[in-house]
Design goal:
With 229 residues, this protein is an all-beta fold. The protein contains no helices and 16 strands. The protein has one domain: Pectate Lyase C-like (3 Solenoid), CATH 2.160.20.10. The chain is 0% helix and 56% strand.
């Protein structure tokens, strides 16, 4: 699938789905590529038993492998992203945004290979066809992991949820010389809507397993029981 001709050309968006297998695909999109969403109007259906594996993903604008940001459902559970290659991304490689009421738990990202190139150009949204692209604009390489709870622009029911039992196993980053270790950002929404029981088992940077101290961690409030192995 190639859909990179304009902004908001998502790849595969699953809306309140259950019992889904997606595999052996190439996605290039100018917004989120592989996304598991919960949308108002379908939100009586929970999101369960989703497997995404053996994808090659080229994300030109949004997030590569994503849950959310719309999570209008009572529950998200048993979601696996496995054995995928992210050859380009903009904001996040592995992304969990719980923007609504979902109790989101038992999610695994496993054997995800992420490429960071010195030839990557700044990600700019063109709103006027007469304005040329500015290759000198500031460049920020994408986060390798984002997990957050919030309510905001993309929220459908504006009721906070919570995140629990999310694992990242064997996340391999391949980076050109001179690129710094990308961020891992974690946060919850409130004390009773936390992000907790998060396990990061192996951030591999150019073949070397990073220690907790070497990881570029940004830990916000309401994060409980974080293990980095």
């Amino acid at each position: 699938m190639v859909g990179m001709w304009r902004y908001n050309s998502d790849g595969i968006d699953l809306f309140n789905c259950q019992d889904v297998l997606i595999e052996n695909s190439f996605l290039r999109n100018f917004d989120d590529c592989m996304v598991v969403k919960g949308i108002k109007g379908w939100d009586r259906q929970n999101v369960r038993n989703i497997t995404v594996r053996k994808l090659v993903v080229w994300c030109d604008w949004g997030r590569a492998l994503e849950i959310g940001a719309e999570t209008c459902a009572d529950e998200y559970a048993d979601i696996l992203f496995e054995d995928c290659d992210i050859i380009h991304a903009a904001y996040s490689m592995c992304d969990v945004q719980n923007g609504d009421r979902a109790y989101l738990h038992h999610v695994v990202f496993r054997n995800i290979r992420c490429e960071y190139s010195r030839y990557q150009l700044p990600d700019l949204l063109q709103t006027d066809m007469t304005v040329p692209y500015d290759p000198t604009a500031p460049l920020t390489h994408p986060r390798v992991i984002l997990v957050q709870g919030y309510t905001g622009q993309w929220s459908g029911d504006c009721i906070a949820g919570r995140n629990e039992a999310i694992r990242f196993e064997n996340i391999l980053c391949y980076a050109d010389e001179g690129i710094g270790i990308p961020k891992i950002e974690l946060s919850g929404y409130a004390a009773d809507h936390p992000t907790e029981d998060i396990v990061i088992d192996g951030i591999i940077w150019n073949g070397r397993r990073l220690t907790r101290e070497e990881c570029n961690l940004s830990i916000g409030p309401y994060v409980n029981r974080l293990s980095i192995l």
